[in-house]
Amino acid sequence: MDATMEIYKTRKMVQASEVKADQLGLERSEQLRKLYLTANTITENVLFRVAFFSLLRVLRFSQ
Fold this sequence. Notes:
By secondary structure, this protein is mainly α. It contains 1 helix and no strands.
């Protein structure tokens, strides 16, 4: 009976650690997704600003 209880406890602990690992993986994926979106937005903003100020410079010199 003790061996059966020990197997049950071990299986339960393994299942709990698998769920925890899955949850950590999901959280990590979400963090990476947010980081990518932030970096992408920053890159787009920088490229927009460069293009915008280049256009302003061209317009100012063409007058």
